[in-house]
Amino acid sequence: MLAIPVFNMQGQSQGELTLDPDVLGGRVRPRLIKQAIVAFLDHQRQYSARTKGKADTEGSTRKLYRQKGTGNARMGQARTPIRRGGGRAFAKRICGRFVDFPKQMKRLARNSAVLAKIKANDVMILSDLRCESPKTKVMAELFARLGVDRGCVLALGEADRSVYLSARNIPKTDVRVVDELNAYEVLRRKKLVLTKPAFERLTAKMTTPVVKSS
């Protein structure tokens, strides 16, 4: 069993919660985590860079002048890459192919990243998080009391606009709903702070639906 410390908003210890590693996959899977990070970063690209090749530029394909007898260098069509206004020799093309990554693998990679954080003692649980109005000062003081002011991911059970607005201007701080977390975002910051509802949603065992054969 793994122990995760619990704190309140005043930074005072409220004990700890135990967690069975099997709930998060049982072990850390480095290769799966790497695949998840590569897939996530690949999906951040736009794949919109494109330049015109010889076939994309305007102009005739007719040879400019005959091969011999003019005293000029041998020359082909006007769209050749060596002439002004011609296409590029190695033009960029739109790829449009993203790395495929199934949802179950994505979820397991996230759980594996969280498990790695827990084993490194970089995870803590916040027993109560109340933010009636957006106040960056309140959130900055909270992180200072918890010792996570050098960078953290704050995972919430559900979206909270006041908490998001209070923490978005703090450097190296990300606020996410726990269901939207991925392995890259978990490992990007030094600490992971889970609210109690987020911890309960993360560790809730999901039942696998039974598919009836026809």
Describe this structure in words.
With 214 residues, this protein is α/β, with parallel strands linked by helices. The chain folds into 2 domains: 2-45 and 100-203, Ribosomal protein L4/L1 (Ribosomal Protein L4, Chain: A, 3-Layer(aba) Sandwich), CATH 3.40.1370; 50-93, no CATH class. It is built from 6 helices and 6 strands; from the N terminus they run ββααβαβαβαβα. The longest helix has 17 residues, at 103-119. It is elongated. Residues 206-214 have low confidence and may be disordered.
CATH superfamily of the largest domain: Ribosomal protein L4/L1
- What are the low-pLDDT stretches, counting only 5+ consecutive residues below 50? 206-214
Class per helix and strand makeup: alpha/beta
What is Rg?
27 Å
Quaternary state, please?
single chain
| CATH class category label of the largest domain | Alpha Beta
CATH topology of the largest domain: Ribosomal Protein L4, Chain: A
Give the rounded overall mean pLDDT. Answer: 86
Strand % is 5-15%
